[in-house]
Amino acid sequence: MDLLTLETPSLVLDIGKVKNNISRIHKRMENLGVNLRPHGKTAKNIDVINVALDGQEGGITVSTLKEAEYYFSHGIIDIVYAVGIAPVKLDRIAGMIKKGANITLVLDSIEQVKFVSAKGQQYGLNIPVLIELDCDGHRSGVTLDDSLLLDIGHLLDREKGVKLSGVLTHAGESYQCKSVEEIRVLAETERDMAVKCSEILRQNGLPCPIVSVGSTPTANFAKDLAGVTEVRAGVFMFYDLVMAGLGCLR
């Protein structure tokens, strides 16, 4: 192959290294007793995602509807759209669900529950939803001590057109850590918050079958994932200089 003659953009990979990267994370998840839900935003390629899914229960994560549509067109049905949902996205999502996709949405407000519920009823659907949690002050989501967690949970349980499927958090601040030990501490914070929020929901008679956490740094260094059902990560397929700087390539 002559790299100088390739049209850009082109994806050029050392498939042996990619498979080794994936295998290493698979072994970690197996040892920790959780399923891996690979994130499709890094690869944006069905062949790589299929390797990442090998031996897992199935299901991927995406960050855009174009990613969701691409992977669905290649036969992947179970998709978490891990970005806070906006009304403008719902017709496309409903269209994919009508065609057989199992798309789970993420939200963190009463307003979002109401417009997702309305859209679900409009299309005759019960759209599955995860409540987004903020475990590190890094992004959107409700916090452990916020009454909004139960307010959203109860509303999802009452409203038609939606279905509470669990909780989701992402330790985005892990990318700013200065040491492996910092990442390990944040990984435990991520796990602990998600599990405690799931317990609050269950103790109040609400369903919480999914407890979803994840980032590539915390996936590499978490010591305990008790109570977690799945880990989301994507950069581990290729790694990069940021991951090298965080010590993920040892």
Helices and strands in order:
Blueprint: H1 15-32, E1 35-38, H2 40-43, H3 46-53, E2 60-62, H4 65-73, E3 78-84, H5 90-98, E4 102-107, H6 110-123, E5 127-133, H7 148-158, E6 162-169, H8 180-203, E7 210-213, H9 216-221, E8 230-233, H10 241-245
Parallel strand pairs: 1-8, 2-3, 3-4, 4-5, 5-6, 6-7, 7-8
Helix pairs in contact: 5-6
Task: Summarize it.
The chain has a single domain (16-245), classed as Alanine racemase (TIM Barrel). The chain contains ten helices and eight strands.
Descriptive overview:
43% of the residues lie in helices and 17% in strands. It has an eight-stranded parallel sheet. The chain is of the alpha/beta class and 250 residues long.
CATH topology: TIM Barrel
* Strand order, sheet with most strands: 1-8-7-6-5-4-3-2
**Category from helices, strands and their pairing:** alpha/beta
CATH C-level category: Alpha Beta
CATH superfamily (homologous) name? Alanine racemase
